[in-house]
Specification:
Layout (H helix, E strand, L loop, with lengths): L10 H6 L6 E4 L2 E4 L9 H10 L12 E5 L2 H14 L3 H4 L1 E5 L5 H5 L14 E5 L6 E3 L6 E3 L3 H14 L5 E5 L5 H7 L3 H16 L8 H17 L5 H10 L11 H15 L15 H4 L5 H12 L5 H6 L1
Parallel strand pairs: 3-4, 3-5, 5-8
Antiparallel strand pairs: 1-2, 6-7
Length: 316
């Protein structure tokens, strides 16, 4: 039988070849992805055969990888990275959205059984998932309970679980990404973004976020913020995040709210030409607005020094 070697830069082609037949070339060395050579178990290979599509296969071609478990991170992290001065595309960093917490199935591709370092750093960003409330068993009534110590314990456990060689775990210090953002320096913007998202979700197909709707959403957020004036930052965050959730604790708003927040942050650090109103914030890339370097530097400094966003900053 004759062996056939195909060299490719195509994630589409790479996703179609059985993972154990791939060899990853990096810095003049070849890394065989066969069973027993990587950090993957036998079952992981079957799983990856089912789910390693071309978007996820871009991890084979990256200089660094950020693995996330959902759409919100996928949308927001590139914008935060831009503000921090690390545009991901410039550094050859790929975001791989695994859409679940099956991180070890993917991150194990980059870990070597013999302890060698492929030289591709991987950041795994995940939620600590400790809910800051208690539920009364009979009435199902929720009572806010911050659970600070329990959250930090879960964070440390998550970081350890996903750290192996050049793969490092970065777990949220509290419940979820959204809850951490709602506790952070971006809290006011996030609160507005939740209301923008609700307006978009409730609108008919042909109506987008108009300036009138933006004003209305800003007023709603302002009124709520005043009503919650006496709350701690954590309880305030709980109420903001709760606006997004359905009765079952799930949310159909996550991607939309993330898109609104991402657009809002870009808008805030841009020099807006006269006559452009905020309803154009989703089209910002089309206009190629220049960056207001002072505003960007101020926001960068706030994000870098925020304890609830530090896990994202460190991952980037």
């Amino acid at each position: 039988s004759s062996d056939l070697i195909i060299s490719t830069h195509s994630p589409i082609l790479a996703s179609k070849i059985n993972l154990k037949n791939l060899i990853l070339m990096k810095n003049g060395a070849g890394y065989d992805l066969a069973e027993g050579r990587t950090g993957l178990q036998k079952g992981d290979y079957l799983f990856l055969q089912r789910f390693l599509d071309s978007t996820k296969a871009n991890l084979f071609f990256a200089k660094g990888i950020i693995m996330v478990e959902g759409d919100a991170e996928n949308i927001l992290i590139p914008v935060i990275a831009d503000i921090l001065g690390y545009p991901l595309e410039k550094y050859g960093i790929s975001i791989v959205n695994v859409g679940s917490t099956a991180f070890l199935r993917y991150s194990g591709i980059m870990a070597r059984k013999d302890g060698a370092d492929i030289g591709i750093p991987v950041s795994v960003i995940t939620d600590c998932d400790v809910r800051p409330y208690d539920v009364e068993p009979t009435t199902k009534e929720k009572t806010f309970n911050e659970k600070e110590a329990e959250s930090l314990q879960a964070k440390e456990k998550g970081d350890r679980k996903y750290t192996n060689g050049s793969v490092h775990g970065f777990t949220s210090p509290r419940w979820t990404l959204e809850y951490c953002i709602a506790m952070s320096c971006l809290s006011d913007d996030f609160h507005k973004a939740v209301h923008y998202g609700k307006k978009i979700l409730n609108a008919q197909e042909h109506i987008s976020l108009t300036d009138a709707k933006i004003d209305e959403a800003n007023r709603d957020a302002e009124a709520e913020a005043q009503a919650w004036n006496g709350f701690s930052a954590a309880e305030m965050a709980y109420h903001i995040y709760d606006l997004m959730l359905n009765g079952d604790g799930k949310s159909s708003l996550k991607a939309i709210v993330a898109q609104c927040l991402a657009s809002l942050l870009r808008w805030k650090v841009s020099i807006i030409p006269d006559g452009q109103t905020q309803e154009k914030m989703f089209d910002l890339d089309l206009y190629g607005f220049k960056t207001d370097e002072d505003k960007k530097a101020a926001l960068k400094s706030e994000i870098e020094n925020d304890p609830f966003l530090s896990y994202i900053v460190n991952a980037i």
